[in-house]
Amino acid sequence: TGGTEALYTILKELGCHLPGIVVVQHMPPVFTQLYAERLNNDCAMEVKEAADGDEVRPGRVLIAPGGLHMTAVRRGGGLIVQCRQGEKVSGHCPSVDQLFFSVARLSGLTSLGILLTGMGSDGANGLLEMKKAGAHTVGQDQQTCVVYGMPAVAQKIGAVDRQLPLPDIARHICEWYAKVSGGKEK
Question: Are 77 and 186 in contact (CB under 8 A)?
Answer without folding.
Answer: no
